[in-house]
Amino acid sequence: MWSGPPSIRRQLWRTLLLTLLFALLFNSGFSSFIVRHEVDEVFDAQLVTSTRMLKTLILKLHDAGGNHLDAGLDNLFADLDQVSDNIQHYEKKMLLQLWSRDGSRMLFRSPQSPDHALAPLQAGMFRMDYQQGRWDVFVAEIPEMDAWLMVAEIPDARDEINESLFGIMLVSGLLALVLATVMLASAIESGLRPLEQLSERLRQRTLDNLQPVELRPEPPELQPVIHSLNHLFERLTDGIERERRFVADAAHELRTPLAVMQLEAQQLQRLATEQGAGHLLDGLMAGIQRGGHIVEQLLLLARLERGAAGVAVENLKPQTLDLAETVRRVLVEHYSRVLDDGGELEIDLDQFSAPVNINPVLLGIAIRNLLCNGMLYGGGQLQVQLRDGGFRRMGMIGLEVRDHGPGVDAESLARLTEPFFRNGRQDGGGAGLGLSIIQKIMEALGGELELSSQPGQGLSAILWFPKVGTANPGE
């Protein structure tokens, strides 16, 4: 059974096929009725003609004498029986009776004709039952002989013709139905193609690609839908651009006063002599540093979003570099900081490497955020290694940073790239923007961010890059 709302294609098929079937049945029934009526009229006219010819023959034989009448009619039916053995199966079979006017005496009957009258003794056409079948009987008066002539015909021939014509009409109707179905299939697919094209255009739209939808040609029925969608895209584009400008402007406006506050706090920290005051100033300093870190992250996120939206951003263009060498240079800058913070860093970059299109600055930011994330939430024991994509990610190479922290459940894992999401952790000084920034960096570089975790087994973050000369499987 179909589930869910019926599709337009199914509705069209159901309606059109039912209409065609109804038209076929109606046409077959109506045509069969008309054909049967016309065939009956033709055979009735032929029966009347045959009766009149027999009447003329009987009158001639009667004028020649009574003996000539019986002998002539016997010879006539003997010749008809002999011919009927050789003619085709649809040839007519006839019975003949000659009765006196008052019906008291049968003057003549053909072979196989019954002893009783085939029809009432009155002129006209009759349908009578005889020998488990229906016979068409025409009764004509012969005033010269004071008699009634009855000629009966079994309707086998007309029934066979009716059945043959009905079969021909049915077969031709079925062939027409098949042909119409094929033509309808082509017409339905052609009619629905603009909808499929519109669906494909909409699937290509993202928050970073809200260009107006265009169809060539544009069906008049879809014009209101397309115009409404394009108007919606315009409003979404304006709203997203306003949001990005707000983030960039807010971060920029906060950057300067936070820097001033940090300088003033540093001066106060040097001047403070009491232990309690120094402790309070340390907390103030940490808060200011965290605020500055958030501002820096917001500014970077705004720059990345502008780059993903197609805006030219300085120092964000990718270069073809060896991934292992580039990662090694980046890790040199952060290795001592990890150790100073009490962490451990295990590095394995020798098994795999490949040239990729990356930006050293963006890659450095991504690695720094992964290391900071691992130090804050992963216990400080970090592993950095390169991985080959294998069959699942053919033509790609990955940089994995794994920690040995408590891990993340599936529900929280799906939200880790949301801005300001910290999985319920408010300590540690993080801003909740690191993985969001990494996600934007990978989008800007044409790569992918893969996160995996099991509770109690730490978090694994892999940056997948297409190897140079290999198409991105995600495209």
Structure characterization notes:
Its EC number is 2.7.13.3. It catalyses: ATP + protein L-histidine = ADP + protein N-phospho-L-histidine. Keywords: ATP-binding, Kinase, Membrane, Nucleotide-binding, Phosphoprotein, Transferase, Transmembrane, Transmembrane helix, Two-component regulatory system. The chain is built from nine helices and twelve strands. The chain is of the alpha+beta class and 475 residues long. It has three domains: 8-164, 2-Layer Sandwich (Beta-Lactamase), CATH 3.30.450; 220-308, Helix Hairpins (Orthogonal Bundle), CATH 1.10.287.130; 319-466, Heat Shock Protein 90, CATH 3.30.565. Strands 2-1-5-4-3 form a five-stranded antiparallel β-sheet, covered by helices on one side. The protein has a five-stranded mixed β-sheet with strand order 7-9-10-12-11, covered by helices on one side.
Would you kindly provide a brief summary of this structure?
This protein is α+β, with helices and mostly antiparallel strands and 475 residues long. 55% of the residues lie in helices and 16% in strands. The protein is built from 9 helices and 12 strands.
List keywords for this structure.
3 domains, Helix Hairpins, 9 helices, 475 residues, 12 strands, 55% helix, 5-stranded mixed sheet, alpha+beta, Beta-Lactamase, Heat Shock Protein 90, 5-stranded antiparallel sheet
